[in-house]
Request: fold
Amino acid sequence: MSEQVHYKIKVSGRVQGVWFRKYTREAAESFGVKGFVENALDGSVYLEAEGSRQEVQRLLDWLHGGSPLSRVDEVRFSEGPLAGYRNFEIRR
Reply:
């Protein structure tokens, strides 16, 4: 089994009110990534993603492009401890 990773990710730009969370969930599910995505109070989107390093990297690559109506200015992430998510959900 490949190494599992947990990333805490913040996506800045025009990412609220443009279906960004819905598209992120669809992308994460298609890549086999577990975790959640939510709107942050500062206008960014925050997510936590778990999966193999390759799966999570595919999601990171996707996040740089974002959803059709979004404009991604920055994607920042850091590794953290595994949380054991069972699916990928939209919060808030």
